[in-house]
Amino acid sequence: MKTLSNLSDRQEISLRLAELAPTDKGRWGLMSVHQMVCHLDDSYEVACGHKTVSPASSLMQRTVIKWFALNVPLQWPRGVPTRPEIEQGKGGSIPGDFRQDLASLLAAFGRFCDHSTRPPVPHPMFGKMTAANWMRWGYLHADHHLRQFGR
């Protein structure tokens, strides 16, 4: 299973992120590529404890769905709702300059991957996460949105 704990998987995601262009078109969903960059940046900032979101967790999400999402080798489904604080068009960071926002995402991604500096924050839906859980989630979340834009 791919995880940001593996250097080659981390480099893969980093390169895919760096290749994003403001002209990339979405294959599904409502976000533009620029909004997606801001959404991923916000998401890694939440995981690093630099941004807070409201919890939306249930016993089913903290157990069965969490296990399934992190351990079953299937692509994540489209259209899963996100927390309003990081949702584009609601409370998510507003896109500015594409290159600056992409640089901010790459910096947040780097901080996220250095899990020794990440405090043990809970995931808003999955609850308590180990470092291994976060690194798997970090790969899967980026991969999901990169595939959304054909990357």
Structural notes for this entry:
With 151 residues, the protein is mainly alpha-helical. It has helices spanning 7-18, 33-47, 59-71, 98-113, 131-148. Helix 1 (7-18) runs antiparallel to helix 4, helix 1 (7-18) runs parallel beside helix 5 (131-148) and helix 2 packs parallel to helix 4 (98-113). The mean pLDDT is 93.
- β-strand percent reads under 5%
Return the domain count.
1
Poorly predicted parts? none
How large is the count of helical segments? 5
Structural class: mainly alpha
Give the SSE order as H and E letters. HHHHH
| Average of per-residue pLDDT values | 93
Distance between the termini: 19 Å
Radius of gyration: 14 Å
Largest sheet: none
Number of strands: 0
Q: What percent of residues adopt helix (DSSP H or I)?
A: 40-55%
Shape: globular
Brief synopsis:
This protein has 151 residues and is mainly α. The protein has one domain. The protein is 49% helix and 0% strand.
Present the secondary structure layout.
Blueprint lengths: L6 H12 L14 H15 L11 H13 L26 H16 L17 H18 L3
Helix pairs in contact: 1-4, 1-5, 2-4, 2-5
